[in-house]
């Protein structure tokens, strides 16, 4: 019988796993099949603790063995033990730590000992909570045998020196053996209900049209399941669990409704108001959405999460359902103060060029003047412009279009030509400056906006959100700008983040969906959006996924639905509908337009801010003159 099952159902994958208390089944039945086997004398009972570190020594050792067995990539298991309930607990718990992430098929065989046949207790097994993640479990029970069976079994043992299990008796023995295959209904109502799949006899083999492993996921019959989400993260999730009926809306929840419709199940949303996404700890437990998925409290969880490496050892991920990116909502650039008006017409490079030209002017005047004195007239006007100080004063005068007075006009042609060309040069500089100043006085100037990762790093501005998950994708980045902003990231509470919106010293991480809409936290609202603007470039992008427990039977159906909805364009349509119906586009549009001048203010009256710069320079000049004059008197 076991050979027939193997040949019909188990040969398409890499290997077959066998866990048995009778070693002979390995060599007698499966001699030509790749096998990973484990022979046990007894199975220690699984500890009630969810923490791997708190397991008893025997339990911990057997758990490690089970993890190694599961890591061999066998997707079919044949089990023949006296305590199958214990082993099922290990399959469920150990699969969370296995590196192999696939749903497995199980065949439980009856055990014979001292001519006594012990069929697995189907009702007890099917009532276990672990059946929720083990839909493909089949139990083989021996129903009828005649009195000659034991004789044939003993004869085989004596002649061939190997024990042929009663379920694999040769038909030449003439025994009437009937084996019944049972599985659990899995679907509602009564998912633990026993379902007879068919029978097998040595003479006829399987009864007609037997399918030991039907796809139970096609129709769950309205089965009640739990799903975890973050409390409120529009437009991904919009929840109101206190209303009647509860409000389940959002892009991911609309997908979940479609998934429930496809598999025909009903669901309840479970949230952790304190931990939100939460985390999974190395001991196998956790909190928040991720913790509930890892501990089998829910069948899946979501909350705009990516396929992060941090949780991958404890969870499984679906296919991505669309692209999203992370940007920052930054403080709006402030208008530059009026005292900076005289500085703004030139940028730093231009001011550096002006400074260098002044230095060159001073040097040129000094060299030409001394050359004239040396070559033409050693008494030249009492050595006018021959000192560095005189040349500096002359150069500053030329910069401000102040020509030399008549008594200081150069007498020799070389010096006259030099000063004339310098006056032309500085006239052009002043003309350019005047044009820039007119532009500054006409169009208000603001601080440089933060549009890119380089801008964010250069500003050295703190950026923040309510969880560390925002930097999971870039915390190992080696690019200098990314490494710098990871260092500047800080996790804060929503209340603290709201305060920082008005302070204008912090950027806020947000997610931008495929359709261009933002997943905005509560502290980005109608009251705060006038103080904020969105970056134009992404910090990083990724692909959101659904989170499931390892080896989840729901993963295949979930992935197929994702592919179908993406092909139809429905997920993008969900985003547009949710934003329009529940989120509202007012804040979204405000963020998009914060870079633009919405209205033309027209001409404005001259204000003190317009002349703050000249007044500042006038005050500085008067103060400097007073200090110099006082020092000369004293």
TrEMBL record:
Recorded topology in the membrane: Multi-pass membrane protein
Membrane spanning residue stretches: 348-376, 388-405, 417-436, 615-633
Primary localization class, coarse: membrane
GO BP field: detection of stimulus involved in sensory perception
Domain Ionotropic glutamate receptor L-glutamate and glycine-binding residue range list: 235-295
A single cellular component GO annotation: plasma membrane
GO molecular function: ligand-gated monoatomic ion channel activity
Keyword tags: Cell membrane, Glycoprotein, Ion channel, Ion transport, Ligand-gated ion channel, Membrane, Receptor, Transmembrane, Transmembrane helix, Transport
Listed SUPFAM superfamilies: Periplasmic binding protein-like II (SSF53850)
One Pfam family in the UniProt entry: Lig_chan
Family: Belongs to the glutamate-gated ion channel (TC 1.A.10.1) family.
Name used for this protein in its record: Ionotropic glutamate receptor L-glutamate and glycine-binding domain-containing protein
Species, as recorded: Diploptera punctata
């Amino acid at each position: 019988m076991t050979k027939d099952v193997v040949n019909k159902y188990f040969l398409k994958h890499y290997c077959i796993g066998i866990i048995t208390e009778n070693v002979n089944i390995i060599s007698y039945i499966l001699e030509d099949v790749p096998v990973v086997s484990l022979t046990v004398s007894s199975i220690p009972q699984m500890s009630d603790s969810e923490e791997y570190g708190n397991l008893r020594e025997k339990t911990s050792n057997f758990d490690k063995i089970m993890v190694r067995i599961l890591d061999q990539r066998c997707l079919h298991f044949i089990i023949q033990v006296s305590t199958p309930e214990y082993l099922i607990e290990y399959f469920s718990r150990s699969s969370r730590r296995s590196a192999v992430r696939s749903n497995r098929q199980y065949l439980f065989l009856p055990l014979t000992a001292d001519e006594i046949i012990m069929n697995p207790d189907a009702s007890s097994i099917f009532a276990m909570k672990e059946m929720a993640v083990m839909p493909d479990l089949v139990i083989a029970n021996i129903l009828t045998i005649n009195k000659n069976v034991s004789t044939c079994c003993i004869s085989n043992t004596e002649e061939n020196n190997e024990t042929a299990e009663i379920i694999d008796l040769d038909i030449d023995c003439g025994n009437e053996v009937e084996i019944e295959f049972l599985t659990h209904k899995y679907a509602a109502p009564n998912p633990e209900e026993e379902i007879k799949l068919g029978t097998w006899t040595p003479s006829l083999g399987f009864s007609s049209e037997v399918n030991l492993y039907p796809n139970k996921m096609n129709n769950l019959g309205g089965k009640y399941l739990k799903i975890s989400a973050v409390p409120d993260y529009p437009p991904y999730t919009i929840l109101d669990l206190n209303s009647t009926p509860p409000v389940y809306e959002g892009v991911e929840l609309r997908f979940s409704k479609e998934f429930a419709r496809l598999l025909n199940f009903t669901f309840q949303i479970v949230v952790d108001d304190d931990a939100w996404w939460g985390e999974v700890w190395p001991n196998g437990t956790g909190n928040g959405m991720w913790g509930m998925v890892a501990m089998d409290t829910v069948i899946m969880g979501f909350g705009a999460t990516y396929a992060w490496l941090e949780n991958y050892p404890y969870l499984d991920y679906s296919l991505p359902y669309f692209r999203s990116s992370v940007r920052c909502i930054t403080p709006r650039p402030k208008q530059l103060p009026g005292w900076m008006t005289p500085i703004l017409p030139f940028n730093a490079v231009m001011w550096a060029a002006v400074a260098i030209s002044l230095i060159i002017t001073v040097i040129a005047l000094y060299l030409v003047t001394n050359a004239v004195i040396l070559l033409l007239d050693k008494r030249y006007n009492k050595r006018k412009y021959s000192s560095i100080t005189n040349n500096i004063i002359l150069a500053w005068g030329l910069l401000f279009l102040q020509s030399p007075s008549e008594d200081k006009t150069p007498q020799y042609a070389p010096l006259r030509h030099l000063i004339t060309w310098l006056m032309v040069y500085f006239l052009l500089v002043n003309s350019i400056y005047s044009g820039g100043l007119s532009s500054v006085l006409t169009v208000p100037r603001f601080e440089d906006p933060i549009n890119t990762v380089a801008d964010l790093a250069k500003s050295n501005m703190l950026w923040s959100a309510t969880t560390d998950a925002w930097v999971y994708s870039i915390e190992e980045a080696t690019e200098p700008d990314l490494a710098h902003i990871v260092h500047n990231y800080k996790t804060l509470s929503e209340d603290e983040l709201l305060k920082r919106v008005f302070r204008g010293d912090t950027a806020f991480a947000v997610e931008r969906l495929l359709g261009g809409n933002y997943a905005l936290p509560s502290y980005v609202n109608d009251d705060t959006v006038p103080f904020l603007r969105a970056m134009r470039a992404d910090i990083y992008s990724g692909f959101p996924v659904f989170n499931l427990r390892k080896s989840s039977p729901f993963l295949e159906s979930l992935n197929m639905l994702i592919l179908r909805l993406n092909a139809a364009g429905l997920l993008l349509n969900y985003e547009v509908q949710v934003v329009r119906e529940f989120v509202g586009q007012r804040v979204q549009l405000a963020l998009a337009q914060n870079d633009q001048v919405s209205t033309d203010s027209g001409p404005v009256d001259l204000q003190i801010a317009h002349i703050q710069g000249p007044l500042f320079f006038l005050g500085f000049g008067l103060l400097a003159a007073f200090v110099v004059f006082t020092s000369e008197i004293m």
